[in-house]
Protein 1
Amino acid sequence: GQNIDQPTEMTATEGAIVQINCTYQTSGFNGLFWYQQHAGEAPTFLSYNVLDGLEEKGRFSSFLSRSKGYSYLLLKELQMKDSASYLCAVRGASGGSYIPTFGRGTSLIVHP
Amino acid sequence: EAGVAQSPRYKIIEKRQSVAFWCNPISGHATLYWYQQILGQGPKLLIQFQNNGVVDDSQLPKDRFSAERLKGVDSTLKIQPAKLEDSAVYLCASSLGVRGPLNEQFFGPGTRLTVL
């Protein structure tokens, strides 16, 4: 089975930097995804890591350590529109294929 | 490129009634997923299809939930009979495949189900 843990809620100030952590346990690891979900909307893809290290994409970066079962999403120059839930999802092996498992999400509140 | 389409967007039913949701994935996407998302939680995978075959349905309550993907394109998810705890948003997603370098999922707008 797969288990994913991330903080329930975080708050940060506009313009600041915030790091959202995710720890996981899985068999047959085949990639970790971060999604953003605004209230009442569907999740949208942010980033993907399958090898150890940092992936940077504009204001967002994601880090992975497979040996530690650990990832983080780093958001720089926070804007009010970044207030959303951030979902960590791990793709792991199951019955000859790969299936995704989502964490419960971290609700990020950005205040002025 | 058209996104993932779902209908209806909202549905209100009474417990013990039946309901069906429809999903049309992005053209060419072989993998289709149905998720249940309860308020304040992450999406829970109910079933995953690869073309018209089931990859995983281990978390699908098979006594009341069923899903099919005829011809490997559109899919329907049915609940019969519904319970109060089925109130949730049902998300459909699709991806090109299941393995390989990326294959991120694209989500539809979801169907918000309320069971009274």
Protein 2
Amino acid sequence: QSALTQPPSASGSPGQSVTISCTGTTSDVGGYNYVSWYQHHPGKAPKVLIYEVNKRPSGVPDRFSGSKSGNTASLTVSGLQAEDEADYHCSSYAGSNNYVFGTGTKVSVL
Amino acid sequence: QVQLQESGPGLVKPSQTVSLTCTVSGGSINSRAYYWTWIRQHPGKGLEWIGYIYYSGNTYYNPSLKSRVTLSVDTSKNQFSLKLTSVTAADTAIYYCAREDSYSRSYFFDFWGRGTLVTVSS
């Protein structure tokens, strides 16, 4: 299966919001409500922010929110903080015990 | 809190086999509750799911890698491993191990290791 499409980069000033898209097909994003999002500071372990499209694990701030429309999922980071500068990856279940990830987005806080 | 740590040779020659190990601490790998997963990231690229193994030894692989990948689990050492054969430069990547909750089947990875870089070069 092909990787999900994410913009290579996104940016915003502190306090602003940034939204990252994740576009797939009816075989993955559009076919299942199993989209997850990960924050990755290079050199550290990736951290899950969102699962099942819009659910937050315990401990993840509500500044992070997820949604989906058709074949495109989105992650919104509200109230940007310096510590949000990181790489963000989406993932979707793709059926038959397969998973597909996105191309990754580097978020910069200006 | 569960922690995962990858280990491996770092540098591998083309056509050889690379073996990586993930050591799990803070929890037992011998549990019906989790799938133990390998994921990789090519330099400057996105992530790629490689496959997962259950405590019982059941495995599922990415179809694109299935012919070259073998996952195994050693419950006595609380470790699981990845073996990738016939490596080429295209296998140069950071390899991560991660955990998925098999009970909820929400298809996400709740704990990850920091990754280990594998470079394929002569």
